[in-house]
Amino acid sequence: MATVAPPAEVDLPVLGMTCAACVRRVEQAVARVPGVARVDVNLPLSRARVAFDPAVASPRGAAAAIRDAGYEVPADVVDALEQPAEAPGAGAGAARARLDAMERAAVREVSSLRRDAVLAIALAVPTIVLAMAIDSAWSAYAQAALCTAVVLGPGWRYVRGGVAAVRHRAPDMNTLIALGAGSAWIASCAELARGDREHLYFEAAAAIVAFVMVGKLLESRARARLADAVRGLTSLAPARARRADGSDVDAASLAPGDEIVVRPGERIAADGTVVAGTSSVDEALLTGESLPVDKAEGSPAYAGTLNHVGALTVRVARAGADTALARIARAVEDAQGNKAPIARLADRVSAWFVPAVLVVAAATGVGWAVGGAGAAVAIERAVAVLVIACPCALGLATPAAVAAGTARGAALGVLFKGGAALEVASRVGVCLLDKTGTLTANKPTLANVEVAGERASDDVLAAAAALENHAEHPVARAIVDGAAARGLVIAAAREVVVEAGRGIAGAVAGASVRVGTAEFLAMADVDVAPLHARAHELAERGCSIAYVAVAGELVGLLAVADAIAPEAPAAVAALRAAGIDVAMVSGDRAGAARAIAVAAGIASDRVYAEVRPTGKAAIVARERAGGVARVVAMVGDGVNDAPALAAADLGIAMASGTDLAASIADVTLLRGIAGLPTALALARATLRVIRVNLAAASIYNAICIPIAAAGVLEPMYAAAAMSLSSVSVLVSSLRLRRWHPR
Q1: Exposed, middle or buried: residue 257 (CB in 10 Å: 0-12, 13-18, 19+)?
Q2: Does the global pTM surpass 0.85?
Q3: pLDDT for 423 beyond 80
Q4: Is the per-residue pLDDT at 738 higher than 90?
Q5: pLDDT score of 337
Q6: pLDDT given for residue 391 in this prediction
Q7: Exposed, middle or buried, 254 (CB in 10 Å: 0-12/13-18/19+)?
Q8: Is residue 294 annotated as part of the catalytic site, yes or no?
Q9: Residues 6+ apart with CB under 8 A from 437
Q10: How confident is the model at residue 291 (pLDDT cuts 50, 70, 90)?
Q11: How far apart are CA 551 and CA 555, in angstroms?
């Protein structure tokens, strides 16, 4: 049976979009391309994400559909996206080309808007002054000339966009602005041609274009700040790298196995392993650790981190788009582009909003004309309705907040997979926490040294450490580290024999030493009964037990435990303070699980222990059924947590865990369990901003359209109010960039 290849996915920058209706138009145009499976357009980021069948469709075809709909896609981005997949650094090159092209386009857009805004203001101000101060024939003709220059100059972009929107049967903001300013201009020209200087609205037409231009300039600047998180992350990775042979190469062209030299003060260009040199490296961008991390031969190295004092030689494991930094940047970009379910409301409203406004404007004009106000006044009232009813604020309300919230999350070590994850995270009522690697540090440490007879505990530990120094098991390393922490001298061991899963034996200072399980010591006829009860007690608390015998006699036992993560109690306390029910789900023994749960502040009756992976998913289902609209989050880090992460309303994975857990999860915590309260609190803050934005945009239209229809608001002031509405929504969303957990 033939397998079906998964759809390819690309991001295309789309320039020229202004409102939610533009989003719908682009989505509909691309969706009609054969082979396109899905398209999501993000207005504040000016981006279209297209999933397509590579055998049928291509990025070039999607770009052509977008251009046909009246928008621009930079050609260099399309060229980069169509590089052969096997080309070295193709993924990284395409991503970099797209980001660079979008930045260049944003600069061009701001420059163009600034130029047109300055010109529109320079022409509109004298038009308004003449209209208000001088009543003469030459003043009327001067107003006509100035207004014509505004409408056919800076305002031509709205006329062109409005015509394209009508041609595609999808009227948008450009249509409203073109009709508003154009109607006032044409009607005034007609009145002037008839010799009537009383009903001229040249100043209104000029002011509409000027105010809209200024609003769009402020809006474009605010939009650019939403993409700062991705640009900031990608800029940390150096574009060039120095190979060990001295050659300077493109970092994206590095391949696994290459060796690069990183001098003091330089950033590392790829992920890999240190093979020579010692230094300290600032890894705060990945781990949140404020202190530099010491590096020596065998230490891991990550792209984008800053080398401090010594030169390092790093053997490359992953480069370009495969590095941890690139994956984080991609995750942030993905999250900013994905729509939250609440955004569908704005999508549905935008489908009928502009047509409805056109109907209301027409009805307003007809109503005033029938009421005897005259054609000029009727046109003025209709123009005011057209201008003030802008769908921009409604279209920006959700995606702008999602972009700002996910960018802030990345800065705080929390990666959301999109708006849907943010929305679900804001409603979590139950958190199920795995034990190992989530509540614990996942690093075994020496917990207890018990002695039998007259031996000193340091002598027991030193004898065991001498043997375990030859083993690589995590328990062995914990014993050796424990001895080093006490300042003990670790003697040399000879004739060392390791039996995997049982223990280790050898000679230390001329005496035979045996360390391991009860069964391993029994093989040498060593009786462990004197410490059996204590060993059972420690095992119930979650410790791994290693008995120690010297010269065939039991001298003690060592207990090694995976200690609770230092930040776990505070994280659990923060969750409970936020009204979230916290429980533990673990495959470990009941005694061990309860000991960690109690230390973390979780009630003993909220502990599920000795649970198999499929059983964890069943517990998630049981918790979800425990109340109406009960939203359950599962937090874990291992392969055994994957079924539960997939079954939960919200799956949350530790970045230090397995790739499978991270791929299934909706949220990834880069800095451990301490980031969990931050993630949920940020999600709630983001949803509050979204609701405020949607309410503000809706109330604005509900209040202002009737006021404009009633003749209270002139077109000039309507244009100013419309521009401020979009800017206010963006400013509201950008507040999240300064959000801090309490």
Answers
A1: exposed
A2: no
A3: yes
A4: no
A5: 58
A6: 63
A7: buried
A8: no
A9: 636, 637, 638, 654, 656, 657
A10: low
A11: 9
Please indicate whether residue 461 or residue 411 has the higher confidence score (pLDDT).
461
pLDDT of residue 96: 62
CA 266 to CA 255: how far, in whole Å? 20
Quick check: 299 and 378 in contact, CB under 8 A? no
pLDDT exceeds 70 at position 647: yes
| Annotated catalytic residue within 434, 562, 581, 649 | 434
Amino acid at site 65: A
Best CA proximity match to 452, nearest among 307, 552, 555, 299: 555
The Cα–Cα gap between 256 and 330 comes to 21
Hey, which bits of 519-570 come out as E strands? 544-550, 553-564
Residue 225, pLDDT score? 64
Are 101 and 78 a contacting pair, CB within 8 Å? no
Indicate the pairing of strand 553-564 with strand 544-550.
antiparallel
Asked whether the predicted pLDDT for residue 343 surpasses 70, the reply is no
pLDDT at position 87 over 60 = no
pLDDT band at 153 (very low <50, low <70, confident <90, very high): very high
Concatenated DSSP letters of 119-162: HHHHHHHHHHHHHHH--SHHHHHHHHHHHHHHHHTTTHHHHHHH
What are 537-583's pLDDT values in tens digits?
888 777 878 899 998 899 999 998 877 888 999 999 999 999 999 99
Strand partners, 240: 250
Report yes or no: 542 and 596 within 8 Å, Cβ to Cβ: yes
Contact 381, 201 (CB under 8 A): no
In our burial notation (b when 16+ CB lie closer than 10 A, e otherwise), range 33-58 reads bebbeebbbbbbbbbbbbbbbeeebb
| Number of Cβ atoms within 10 Å of the Cβ of 734 | 20
Burial (Cβ within 10 Å: 0-12, 13-18, ≥19) of residue 217: buried
Indicate the helix (H) or strand (E) that contains 360: helix 343-370
- What is the rounded radius of gyration, in angstroms, for the C-alpha atoms of the chain? 34
d(CA 389, CA 700): 9
Residues in CB range of 710: below 8 A, 6 or more apart: none
